[in-house]
Design goal:
Layout lengths: L5 H20 L14 E3 L10 E10 L2 E8 L1 H13 L27 E5 L6 E6 L4 E2 L7 E2 L4 E9 L5 E8 L14 E4 L6 E2 L15 E8 L2 E7 L5 E6 L10 E2 L7 E7 L2 E6 L8 E4 L10 E4 L1 H4 L6 E8 L2 E7 L10 E4 L5 E5 L3 E3 L2 E3 L14 E10 L2 E8 L1 H4 L6 H4 L7 E4 L6 E4 L10 E8 L2 E7 L6 E5 L10 E8 L2 E7 L6 E11 L11 E3 L3 E6 L3 E3 L8 E9 L12 E3 L8 H13 L6 H19 L3 H16 L8 H20 L10
Antiparallel strand pairs: 1-32, 2-3, 3-4, 4-5, 6-7, 8-9, 9-10, 10-11, 12-13, 13-14, 14-15, 16-17, 17-18, 18-19, 20-21, 21-22, 22-23, 24-25, 26-27, 27-28, 28-29, 30-31, 31-32, 33-34, 34-38, 35-36, 35-37, 35-39, 39-40
Helix pairs in contact: 1-9, 6-7, 6-9, 7-8, 8-9
Length: 679
């Protein structure tokens, strides 16, 4: 089709506007606006005034205050631990990185972990607790190491007497030294000011723990659970119905050999994400009852059945009635960081990541995005948080660590700093920031906490100190373009999206995806985006990228602007070619049948009517009246959005599928050659 034709462009605008008019008319059903980059401001002095407060490794809202536990001198500690493991040739101590400040002798590092508190009304941070520094260093006679060099996890637990307590899990310096140091401590506070360790006497479970850290404190069905893991995180699961008693009131509840990494409660079960670099992560669940070790049921195995899978589950979050699971790799780029979504019946969808064939059939990412949101240096989907109907996802971006490799320094510049994404429907992911809010050394978003005083985000920065950001909506602004989709036509990308009320123009931004071939072969050759540049300004909700080289890969986002020049936040990211399955009548009918089989329709009659309606639209389209088929589908989308057909969130699943099909039919009606036909 001659896209340079003004008449063709006007016709396409009319068709696309028709396909999205229903959605625009139903703005009252949309969730509250999400937070964008301009809504976040710095909420604390960097590092709380001390660059050795490297990570906000734990955060918890409790009794009107925000609590933060720190990890001290992280880059120095990790460099020395790697030297101990792999030798000084690869990992010299002190590090050669000019932006890392370490003592000449690691035994002199200031490693006493801290707990800080912010009461938003008061507006002042205060340090409540600092670890004692009274453990004799087993390798440096006359010197001492702290009881805790980090506080990795926090949670509030309802005690047997009915009161609440704040528990904080510590990390020891064990991995730094040849000799042993005492087991990690579990601190407890009843007033938010005084912190005391639970009893951990020698000869008891808590006194003789095998590993150096606690992570993933989780309260479930009257018990407190925690992972006792190696410094990198994976290990055994402990539980107690009387955690303050310490000692033998705790017991191991995981079977031998299970390497747990993350815990989350969902649908009446305790879900466990595992670590397995040989076979890939697994997702398990347990009712946590009976005699330990508890019985665990496998939900996902072998890294989601990918040939070169993620090593471990890094994050889990319940959102919109489903469990969202983020994964990651141990150290090096090359293994995917992906997101899967688990339903209450333990069926799962791939949201972000490489397509793969599974026992349940082909799974393609619903977002259309490859691993790491298109950035191979996003090694982890590190943490997730929810606020006002939006799920936020933060990455660990290892490009900051590899930026000093001379052969790729310039190529990594656009990537430096962690990424933060948001989604309201679990399918379309919009960037909030892709550069650590402008700080290239903030390589990971480690914690999210929603509070009455704002949405707090903690960023790890082992170079100059942790960052705490507070998100609070600023004055209303023009809405962002929604549901950007990419079709390939004649080998080039064609973008469509929902138009924005009040938009006078749309700016289209593009980044090329390329493999870094100069990367050391040992570390793989990650696919990464280049810098985003504006490639077009259009007045309608579509863009045909005729200048795109045929066969190339890209990421896009779109920004709306009104007549006064006010700009929106970015749209969702869209990858070209998209990795999502193209929508067609067969895929929509299959989705309806799946939703019916799983009991998600409000009635059998609603399921039958919906299937018959889409089938009738299919017959109409095959008969040659594509315009009438589009009209029929839009009427069905309207009916579905009224909430009388399906239970949420499945309403959204089906109406998105229908909208995607309508757009493809609109293009087909105009004679656009699509990669695969919608009929």
């Amino acid at each position: 089709m001659p896209w340079s034709s003004a008449a063709a462009r006007r016709t396409l605008v009319a068709a696309v506007v028709l396909s999205i008019s229903t959605a625009l008319a139903l703005t009252a059903q949309r969730p509250a606006p999400s937070l964008g980059a301009r809504d976040f401001t710095q909420a604390a002095i960097q590092g709380f005034g001390d660059r050795h407060n490297s990570w906000p490794w734990s955060m918890q809202w409790w009794n009107g205050s925000l609590y933060v536990g720190t990890y001290r001198a992280a880059a120095c500690v990790e460099q020395f631990e790697l030297q101990q493991l792999l030798g000084p040739t690869l990992f010299p101590y002190p590090p050669t990185d000019p932006n890392v400040e370490c003592t000449p002798d690691p035994a002199d590092l200031p490693l006493q972990a801290e707990i800080w508190r912010l009461t938003p009304g008061a507006g002042q941070w205060e340090r409540l607790y600092q670890s004692p520094n009274d453990v004799p260093n087993p390798n440096r006679p006359g010197k001492f190491v702290p009881r805790d060099m980090a506080y990795r996890t926090m949670t509030v637990h309802r005690e047997p007497d009915g009161g609440d307590a704040l528990y904080v899990g510590g990390v020891t310096t064990n991995a730094m030294w040849d000799g042993g140091v005492p087991a990690p401590r579990l601190l407890r506070s009843l007033d938010g000011v005084t912190f005391s360790p639970v009893p951990a006497d020698a000869g008891t479970v808590m006194g003789d723990l095998p590993n150096a850290n606690f992570r993933s404190l989780t309260s479930f069905n009257g018990q407190l659970f925690v992972i006792n893991g190696i410094r990198q995180g994976s290990g055994i699961i402990l539980a107690s119905s009387n955690p303050s008693a310490g000692n033998d009131a705790w017991q191991q509840i995981s079977p031998a050999g299970l390497q747990a990494f993350e815990l989350e409660v969902f649908n009446g079960w305790l879900y466990v994400g595992t670590f397995d670099p040989a076979n890939g992560y697994s997702l398990l669940k347990t009712r946590a009852t009976g005699t330990p070790p508890y019985t665990f049921v496998t939900v996902i195995d072998h890294g989601g059945e990918l040939s070169s899978p993620s090593d471990f589950v890094t994050s889990m979050r319940v959102f919109d009635g489903r469990l969202h699971v983020g994964t990651g790799a141990v150290l090096l780029p090359g293994k995917p960081a992906e997101i899967v979504r688990v339903d209450a019946d333990d069926t799962w969808d791939l949201l972000v990541g490489p397509p793969r064939q599974t026992a349940a059939g082909m799974k393609r990412p619903l977002s259309g995005l490859g691993d790491g949101f298109g950035n191979g240096f996003n090694d982890h989907v590190w943490r997730m948080g929810a606020q006002s109907g939006t799920l936020y996802l933060g990455t660990y971006d290892s490009s900051t660590y590899w930026r000093t490799l001379p052969q790729i320094t310039s190529r990594l510049q656009p990537l430096l700093g962690a990424d933060l994404y948001r989604t309201q429907d679990g399918r379309y992911f919009s960037p909030v920031t892709m550069n650590g809010f402008g700080d290239p050394f903030s390589f990971g978003f480690r914690n999210f906490v929603d509070t009455p005083g704002g949405f707090f985000v903690g960023a790890a920065n082992p170079f100059f100190g942790l960052r705490i950001w507070r998100g609070q909506a600023v004055a209303p602004r023009i809405g962002a373009p929604q549901r950007v989709e990419v079709e390939m036509s004649a080998g080039r990308p064609l973008l469509t999206w929902r138009g924005v009320a009040g938009a006078a123009r749309y700016d289209v931004w593009r980044a090329g995806l390329q493999t870094i071939t100069q990367y050391p072969a040992l570390l793989g050759q990650p696919l990464v985006p280049g810098p985003f540049t504006q490639v077009a300004t259009v007045t309608g909700p579509f863009f045909a990228d005729q200048a795109a080289p045929e066969g190339a890969q890209f990421l896009y986002f779109v920004v709306a602007q009104n007549a006064t020049g006010q700009q929106s936040d970015p749209s969702n990211l869209a990858q070209a070619p998209s990795l999502a399955e193209p929508e067609s009548f067969p895929t929509v009918l299959a989705l309806i049948e799946t939703l019916r089989a799983r009991g998600h329709f409000l009635s059998d009659a609603a399921a039958v009517a919906t299937f018959a309606g889409v089938q009738q639209a299919q017959f109409t389209a095959i008969g040659g009246d594509v315009a009438a088929a589009i009209s029929q589908l839009i009427g069905m989308q309207q009916q579905i959005l009224m909430g009388t057909t399906l239970a949420p969130p499945y309403t959204t699943d089906l109406e998105i599928a229908i909208e995607r099909l309508v757009r493809r039919l609109s293009l087909l009606r105009l004679g656009v050659a699509l990669r695969s036909p919608p009929q």
